[in-house]
Amino acid sequence: MDRRWRDVGVLVAALFAVNVVARLIIRFGFEGDDTTADRVSLAMFAVIGLILAVIAFRWGRRRPLSDWAADMALVVLVAMVLTVLVGPLLIGHNPFAGGAPTFFAQIWLYLLASGAGVLIGYLVLTALGRDYRSWQLKRYAEVKAAKPRRVVRR
Hints:
Blueprint: H1 2-29, H2 34-62, H3 65-90, H4 100-127, H5 132-146
């Protein structure tokens, strides 16, 4: 149980660190250039999706979907709140400076990128037949095939 929460905390910290690095790159490298800042933000969302795809692939091999889906949802929600509310404060901006449309656009983009990453990771895992459920079914079929047929005498 302790390892489970450590994994969740490390993943939240990693996703938040990706956001902080992207914000610092935009702040110190491309302060006035909105086009490049948008590209860096898009790259940040792609990296977040890629990280979550890899984690969904790894967690899906070890544990059933019902065990790790709640952990993944918690990770995404906590990392999103940190990204949207705390991230701008670290570089000296107000989280609500762009207005409601910008604030909610960040939330939707984060949910879209993270949802796509988790979905792609799990679908690739399932398509390869390496998910937890596929391994269970494979072991069950092997056990059933290994037992000799029981002869009934009358």
